[in-house]
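[Meeting: bench + compute handoff]

Bench side (C.D.) handed over the final construct sequence. Compute side (W.E.) agreed to return the predicted structure before the next meeting so the bench team could plan truncations. Sequence as handed over:
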Amino acid sequence: MSFWGQMNLMDSASPLQSEMFLFHDHAMILLLGIFTFCASLGLKLMLNKLTSRTVLEAQRLETVWTIVPAILLIWLALPSLRLLYLLDEQSSDNGMILKATGHQWYWSYEVPLSNNGSFDSYMIPESDLNEGEYRLLEVDNRAVVPFGMETTVIVTSADVLHAWTLPSMGIKMDAVPGRLNSMSMFVEKPGVYYGQCSEICGANHSFMPIVVEALNLGDFCNLQF
């Protein structure tokens, strides 16, 4: 099992998710450093018997503990702003479009450039699963995209709030009735990627999974056209 699998995180399959992993490591280094410093300082204060009733202020100490946290916040904020910029950057001029519409409780997909029209994607009941398939995650119709090229995912809803979430791609978009939200997705390698609606949308909220299958461009064109 990979390192991220051991950490209960899905392996990255897109540049955006790889950047999120890097930012996660960056933030964890800061948090572990602060925790270690505060824990060792607290332990030292509890174990020693030094006291002082005459010290009322320490300008130098107050200056240090104001400047150092500010520097640490800047160290955390700069890569965070860079990641936000990458998430908002759209470059769909040369890619394809996948439209996902949330319903209670299933997803509908449409590829505007194909001749297949739209199709619904329902969760496969546990009694109908084949050996090796995942419970509560498999669907009867997968959304198919090509890997190695940009895909713009457009998400909306036909009834209530949903959220189209694909952890391996670093994508989480709200599906809002009457509104189109879009985000770029670049799949780096072929495979089948799983997600779920991450918005509490009703009684069967847990039973509308998302499955995206990435194929090479030739197989994708034969399937769609």
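W.E. noted at the follow-up: The chain is about 35% helix and 25% strand. C.D. will use this when planning the next construct.
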